[in-house]
Amino acid sequence: MMLERNCREVKVREVRFLGTWDEPSDFVELTLENPGWEAYLPGQFAMLRAKHWGLELPWGRPFSISRVDAESVTFLIQVVGRGTSRLARLRQDEVVIIWGPLGNGFSAPAGTPTLLLAGGMGIAPFRGYIESHPSPEFLHLFFAHRAALDFYPYLVMAEKVRAEAVQEHSTDDLPEIIARIETAMDGYAGGLVLACGPTPFLRTVQAHALKKNIRAELSLEKTMACGVGACLGCVCKDGQGRNVQVCSRGPVFPAADVQI
Amino acid sequence: MMLERNCREVKVREVRFLGTWDEPSDFVELTLENPGWEAYLPGQFAMLRAKHWGLELPWGRPFSISRVDAESVTFLIQVVGRGTSRLARLRQDEVVIIWGPLGNGFSAPAGTPTLLLAGGMGIAPFRGYIESHPSPEFLHLFFAHRAALDFYPYLVMAEKVRAEAVQEHSTDDLPEIIARIETAMDGYAGGLVLACGPTPFLRTVQAHALKKNIRAELSLEKTMACGVGACLGCVCKDGQGRNVQVCSRGPVFPAADVQI
Amino acid sequence: MIDLRVEFAGLVLKNPIITASGTFGFGLEFAAFGDLKRLGGIVVKGLSLKPREGNPMPRVAETPCGMLNAIGIQNPGVEAFLRDKLPLLPWRETAIIANMYASSVPEFGELAQVLSVEEGVAALEVNVSCPNVSFGGAAFGQDPAQIRKVTEEVKKHAKGKPVIVKLSPNVTDIAACAQAAQDGGADAVSLINTLLGMAVDIRTRRPTLANVVGGLSGPAIKPVALRCVHQVCRKVLIPVIGIGGIVSAEDALEFILLGAAAVQVGTANFLRPDQSFRIIDDLPRAMIKARSDSLGELRGSLKLP
Amino acid sequence: MIDLRVEFAGLVLKNPIITASGTFGFGLEFAAFGDLKRLGGIVVKGLSLKPREGNPMPRVAETPCGMLNAIGIQNPGVEAFLRDKLPLLPWRETAIIANMYASSVPEFGELAQVLSVEEGVAALEVNVSCPNVSFGGAAFGQDPAQIRKVTEEVKKHAKGKPVIVKLSPNVTDIAACAQAAQDGGADAVSLINTLLGMAVDIRTRRPTLANVVGGLSGPAIKPVALRCVHQVCRKVLIPVIGIGGIVSAEDALEFILLGAAAVQVGTANFLRPDQSFRIIDDLPRAMIKARSDSLGELRGSLKLP
Ligand SMILES: Cc1cc2nc3c(=O)[nH]c(=O)nc-3n(C[C@H](O)[C@H](O)[C@H](O)COP(=O)(O)OP(=O)(O)OC[C@H]3O[C@@H](n4cnc5c(N)ncnc54)[C@H](O)[C@@H]3O)c2cc1C
Ligand SMILES: Cc1cc2nc3c(=O)[nH]c(=O)nc-3n(C[C@H](O)[C@H](O)[C@H](O)COP(=O)(O)OP(=O)(O)OC[C@H]3O[C@@H](n4cnc5c(N)ncnc54)[C@H](O)[C@@H]3O)c2cc1C
Ligand SMILES: Cc1cc2nc3c(=O)[nH]c(=O)nc-3n(C[C@H](O)[C@H](O)[C@H](O)COP(=O)(O)O)c2cc1C
Ligand SMILES: Cc1cc2nc3c(=O)[nH]c(=O)nc-3n(C[C@H](O)[C@H](O)[C@H](O)COP(=O)(O)O)c2cc1C
Ligand code: FES
Ligand code: FES
């Protein structure tokens, strides 16, 4: 994985958008030229900013790295506001400013039964996780989603690992979904649980992991201005109640070491 | 010309950009869907703003209406800054916000020998002027330019009216160009001179017009915020030294009635 | 149909969207872009006793998400306004608010006298906060004692018409200024006027504005405006009109949540000349976002920690 | 090769581009993005005597062409800085400036005492202008008498290290604050710190920041910063460091034309983490635009009407 080497090589790059879109959508797969990354850890993220944004939005936007190959890097993006809607309107060859890979990644121990708990766009990092894992036969993907399944890369992932998906049609579905998450987790008491998704989803996972003493890692989402640990705008409390930057000390934290 | 009717019908419209550009250029012909304009006076202008500009640039940008047909309206735009460079990057079908036709236009008396003095992008309004003039055989276009002639619509215009062009390669050429302008104007002492171009160019024309008592109209350029006479940011002094809005009382002024 | 009416300081407005002084001319410039009768109110360009030509050019500059202006209260004078403009405005249907500029306390009184006899004038807005004039203007607006004096003087001549005092953000303590206006008898305060700013052209090595400094407005200043309105709403009892960087119905609601009774839309009128009308059209949709169908319920309902 | 060196207040900087406190961490966060030795200087995150956790979350919000922050001077304390961070910084090659925050005059003195014995600290920047702390901070920064007192106290313990007093724009008269710093013995002033602002979320009906108010920075405030620097440069004799909304080499030159000896780059470091390095690279090109090859010639060369 060469993380150490890689981290020293984090640079700001200007790369081209390789895709095109036929029509506007709220879920887009954004494929950029590979900015020269040789390796990354699934769970790491990058900050993106379209070159033409100008000054109205002074911040880049953080997105999990979904997959990387020699030519390209792919992100899965849900349009929720000003930056994501601009990214979803990029045209072919338009230039995007990118810095990354940033932060840490999920643990990927070989031969360990590992449950991947994804909520919505939280599925993004697991795409690359599955592809690069030393023993994918030990992985199980549990995917809770709201939008239709085909907005997500679930099916290609389900071809590679054991997978199940459950749709939240309304908040009435939540108790059952939570129950299923907990049941799934119980099956990994001796293994590892990795979770990425909205904060309430992570809280559920954390509570059950602590209760049942299951080893779990959570990928947190916070508004980020710099992405590199400098602004202190993205902090959460660690186990000792001290503020730590989610961007540089996370975004992945052991469930026992973080207050969310 | 139905100006009165037209003016009451000035509305803000959102129209599509009909063109495409192969490569970036500093001189672009911007063709938009006709916003429902039935008539305009050559010399009038419109305020443009790409819908995706967002808030960084709070002002629209004024451009002379170059020509109008049933389907479209065309502007000639030189890239000089933030707004024009964004306009020159529009992609097909992208939406532009437009309000116009604004201001007054040039006089177009039939059967009157009329000299059109254009400096650089000042050629824009004369394109439509020539096309809609009741007696184009009375028109003479004199065009002073810096960039290569094929950046401007000079040749298509020269097919329709008598025309001459002179290129300013360096400021050394100015005395000769000024002399030629003055000579050309002298030939229209009993007719009409219309001028559109940079302020120093207009000053030359004004000085000579006043000296030789030649009837002349000048189209002024000022930074504009609103384009509709409200902000008072674009004023010039009239003959009595009172401030008048260039956008709503101009942009065309009789040479004798304005201080530039 | 959601009821957008608001009532405060003796004014009844169709909706809380008022166009801000200096950004909507005398209203008539915008008649082509929307039905003026639909506006909550129109504050006309600043008026002085005598006509003023204003400052030399250039006097506007675009800045990131904002603009500077140093118009210097160019206006045809109050008489010409009353004679040539007011009769053409739909003052029976829409509140026409006169924005007043003067360079001394007695002159403010005189101006109020002239304006207050006019049936077509719904209220007087006292501009003690213009940064673009060398005498008067901000000088008053930065000193609570002066604000109080000017307010008292205008109030004395206002013949019962509502007096709105427009405050400057270029002060250490804007709540103290609002308090002074209230003490002077103001019926409402409006804020903020522009922030004092400047632009420089490195090519010419000159200030972009001939007046050197000017007033900053537009979306850039909205955070400052919100803070000022918040501070003032917590300090005074009289109604507050929120101004500064409002370009959308959501922006307007932000001020109303802080406690503003109404808002003024300024620079947004330059984004596109129908923007104020669009904001009104959009208000009901924005209210749904805030889960309310009542402006009265929304007003001041900000939850503080 | 254009010489970009600047000298003032006892400092010799390779170039006039300094990174601003709180926006560049302790510098080390940016080592991957450029050679820290190339910077004119680095002002580190605000330091206090004891570690501070800062304000509750959320504490940043993006605004049009700007941002609000209410970090509340989270920092590991001055001891941890001196022990863990400073030794890793290239302090022999680049001026490392310590930004100081304290909540009383004596505490400022104590902090100065600790910092001034350190060879690696090139200068002390006294933050009397932080809007994000309930005690101290802006309270000092809005009162010239307090500014003078704090400056005197820090100067007394600075052992000859240059003392830079960082001023708040949230005042009626920033030139008077600069004068007070000069009177207190400051070697330079830096300005502006952030404008007090606020953001509101209409969906939750809450202030976006847990701290309710925060400091506005970024391109949005550049016009205000330029105006403040202009006013201060005309008032005081000590060098002025310009701060506020600088994102490009052109922006930096605007402040230098007004008379600034150097500038600080803040929010622009979030546009992209190599932005300060890019500004340095771009300075010579921008100087050509202003038709000069000398910063000394450019400095203060603004032509006023
Ligand atoms: C480490 C990390 C990885 C992420 N990975 C992905 C991903 O793979 N795919 C994806 O679609 N999104 C991802 N996100 C969330 C994504 O960053 C935000 O959706 C995005 O920044 C919103 O930008 P915007 O300009 O469109 O929204 P804005 O206009 O800035 O805000 C719109 C709304 O989104 C909220 N918001 C803003 N920033 C964030 C944020 N960082 N996190 C959560 N909500 C936010 C705002 O509060 C507001 O309600 C990730 C976030 C983090 C921190
Ligand atoms: C009535 C009228 C008709 C015009 N017609 C045309 C036309 O047909 N074709 C064309 O290319 N241009 C025309 N212009 C000029 C055009 O409006 C400006 O070039 C444009 O607004 C610059 O926008 P920008 O954002 O690219 O420049 P900015 O980034 O705003 O500024 C870049 C430079 O341009 C200068 N500038 C800004 N606005 C103006 C302005 N309104 N006039 C002159 N200089 C300005 C600035 O001072 C600055 O030096 C016209 C202007 C007016 C007032
Ligand atoms: C071009 C211009 C002219 C203005 N003229 C006046 C004026 O005459 N009187 C006044 O009280 N305010 C004047 N203002 C201030 C606005 O009414 C308003 O307070 C300010 O612009 C902030 O609101 P905004 O950000 O929505 O523009 C003017 C503003 C602009 C931009
Ligand atoms: C996230 C953040 C944290 C800041 N922290 C400090 C600080 O600790 N001490 C200080 O003096 N200024 C602090 N500032 C203010 C900046 O140093 C600078 O004065 C201000 O942001 C204006 O410059 P800018 O517009 O270039 O950002 C902070 C600013 C930001 C955005
Ligand atoms: S985003 Fe700046 S510290 Fe994490
Ligand atoms: S541009 Fe606003 S008055 Fe002319």
Question: Brief description of this entry?
Answer:
The complex is a heterotetramer, with two copies of chain A (260 residues) and two copies of chain C (305 residues). Chain A is α/β, with parallel strands linked by helices. Helix content of chain A is 22%, strand content 31%.
From the alpha carbons, calculate the radius of gyration of chain C and give it in angstroms. 18 Å
CATH homologous superfamily placement of chain C: Aldolase class I
Number of domains in the coordinates of chain C? 1
Give the integer mean of the pLDDT values of chain C.
Answer: 95
What is the helix content of chain A? 10-25%
As residue ranges, the low-confidence spans of chain C are none
Q: Give the amount of beta strand of chain A, in percent.
A: 25-35%
Summed up, the helix count of chain A is 7
Taking the alpha carbons of the first and last residues of chain C, their distance comes to 33 Å
Major interchain interface with per-chain residue totals = C-D, 50 and 50 residues
**In total, how many beta strands of chain A?**
16
Biggest pleated-sheet summary of chain A: 6 strands, mixed
For the largest beta-sheet of chain C, the strand count, sense and barrel status come to: 8 strands, parallel, barrel
Mean pLDDT of chain A comes to: 93
Main attributes?
A: alpha/beta; Elongation Factor Tu (Ef-tu), domain 3; about 20% helix; disordered N terminus; C: about 300 residues; 8-stranded parallel barrel; 4-stranded antiparallel beta sheet; about 30% helix; binds flavin-adenine dinucleotide; binds flavin mononucleotide; binds FE2/S2 (inorganic) cluster
